[in-house]
Amino acid sequence: MTARALGGRYRLEQKIGEGGMAEVYRATDMLLDRTVAVKMLRTQYAEDEEFVRRFRQEAQAAARLSHPNIVNVYDVGVEDGQQYIVMEYVDGPTLKDVIVERAPLRVEEVIRISRQICSALQHAHELHVVHRDIKPHNILLTKTGQVKVADFGIARAATGQTITHRQATTVLGSVHYFSPEQARGGPTDAKSDIYSLGIVMYEMLTGKLPFEGESPVTVALKHLRDPFVEPRQLNKEIPQSVENIVLRCLAKEPESRYPDMAAVMADLDRALERPNVPKYTPSGGVDDRTIVVPAMGDRLSEALKSAGTEGDSEEDGGRAKPPMARWKRVSLITGIVILSVVALGLGGYAAIDIVTKLLTVPNVELPSVVGKPVASAVATLEAAGFSRQQIQEKFEPNLKAASGIVYQQSPAGNTQVKKTRDITLYVSQGAPKVAVPDVTNEPLDQAKQALVSAGFSANNIVVQTETSDSVPSGDVISSDPSPGTQVPITAKITLTVSQQQYVTVPKLVGLTLQQAEAAIQAAGLTLGTVTPSDLVNQNPLVSYVYPYIQGDRVPAGSTINLYVVPNPASVAPSNETGNSTGNATTGSNNASQGDNAGNGTNAVGNTVGGANNSTQPTAGAVPQPPQPPAGGPPGHQKRKGH
């Protein structure tokens, strides 16, 4: 077997355990190079289609569980008709090994182990996975003392089988931890795991099991009808607070047990803080740890005597009970006794079966009321036969359900429950409320992060902009709702963010410096550098602008730099200029002169003449500036047509 590799991946190395239904091997996952545990079902289950179907279904459900106190399920497969599960390998003993070696365990250790088991099962129950086979054999302990609950997959599948002679050896290891409802073959839920946990705690605290017998059937019947020796009678070191937890877990009827594992954990957490508490009794003062069947002979006389004299007791203020009340009580007890006599006449298990059925509360269908308004949900449950006193309402914030809507019920709807079962409705109060944090004057990104950290959804943050002279661009001006307001975390939050006003760069090329400066100011911009600076006092003409160009949309207040050239209108005329001016006036240019400088002067003269004939210089008439430094002024952009 050690040379075998399942699925070409898991190399079996050594058998490390076995039970009635499976064998467990230490193996190596050759793909991921890690040690795993492989549990292989025995071959006799391979032909049971229902078993195989439920086994795979529940093993896959267990694989969805992710909790530090649950053995991880990595893979499920079948090879040569043999089902197997690949699990996390835990290098440590089972809780059963520890109990056998040194029980009774210290109370502190029992609480620590029990709390981790509760945490694991609470996680599973929240995902609608019920273990159904909680026992010390399925609880592993690491070398650091961490609890690992195993065998979720097999447990659910195994409960599809009934206790029969053929399977007696298979269920022997589990029947000591069965709940009464499992023993009678009825429906089971998370309350069954609570009962089994109570037996595990009982065994850790005392080193003994509460019920033992010669056969699985005998033990199962004891779960149904027999009392047990209370833990403190076997171990005086057990605080009453801890015994109370065990007593409540081991209630015969599920509705008398804890509502869920979270409630068990809460009592475990405070057990050592308040050890000397009153002894636990079920609500109503009736101890349902056993179903009492009146015996014959002396007990019959005592029952009749009690029924006939109870009304005259001085303990009730000396007031005699009405005759009808006494008659009803006598009739009730007499009826039970007669039925018991008839049942016992049948002998043995038949008698127990009949009496148990007579004294067992019937199951009824619990309708689903999730999604209904609370008033409608209560009416639906009352119509189904549940009294108003059985229906409890818990109002809690909920993100998904509107206020006043039932978002969860316990037990779950569309299931069979005891007719006397209490029903808890979880009613939404709407989304939880939080205070809007103050994000004014913060950058938008930081403001959004603060809102998300407070619990608001990023999708519900709306941003609008507004110009502001006092708040830097991109910072938050205000929020709606205002800071400190308590609102649901699903509320929409509107942030008003500062945005600088944008303006258009006007036409500047061809204007005088004075004209350009006025245009820049009028546009809401700022005049920056004028180059070359020695022309500033000569009212030069603008040759080009940078870093923006005409028509650009820029933030108000942006800086505009200018490059200027001499303004011919500001230059004193020379003889040559006068001649040129005269020539320009008559429309005649001295174009035939070969002197380049003269031609240039004539050009200036022509320009001046043009200026004289026009109210504003044109871009085409601006003299070309000297060559700027390599690369141009900072931000310089060449423009065509200017």
From TrEMBL:
One of its GO terms (molecular function) is protein serine/threonine kinase activity. CDD domains: PASTA_pknB, STKc_PknB_like. Residues 570-642 are annotated as: Disordered. PROSITE patterns: PASTA (PS51178), PROTEIN_KINASE_ATP (PS00107), PROTEIN_KINASE_DOM (PS50011), PROTEIN_KINASE_ST (PS00108). It catalyses: L-seryl-[protein] + ATP = O-phospho-L-seryl-[protein] + ADP + H(+); L-threonyl-[protein] + ATP = O-phospho-L-threonyl-[protein] + ADP + H(+). It comes from the Bacteria. It is a single-pass type II membrane protein. GO terms for biological process: cellular response to peptidoglycan; signal transduction; spore germination. ATP binds at K39. It comes from Alicyclobacillus vulcanalis. Residues 360-429, 430-499, 500-566 form the PASTA domain. This is Serine/threonine-protein kinase PrkC. The keyword Chloroplast does not apply. Its EC number is 2.7.11.1. NCBIfam families: PknB_PASTA_kin. It is found in: Spore membrane. It is an enzyme of class 2 (transferase). Residues 623-632 have a biased composition (Pro residues). The chain crosses the membrane at residues 330-352. Residues 577-622 have a biased composition (Low complexity). SMART domains: PASTA, S_TKc. Keywords: ATP-binding, Germination, Kinase, Membrane, Nucleotide-binding, Serine/threonine-protein kinase, Signal-anchor, Transferase, Transmembrane, Transmembrane helix. Residues 10-272 form the Protein kinase domain.
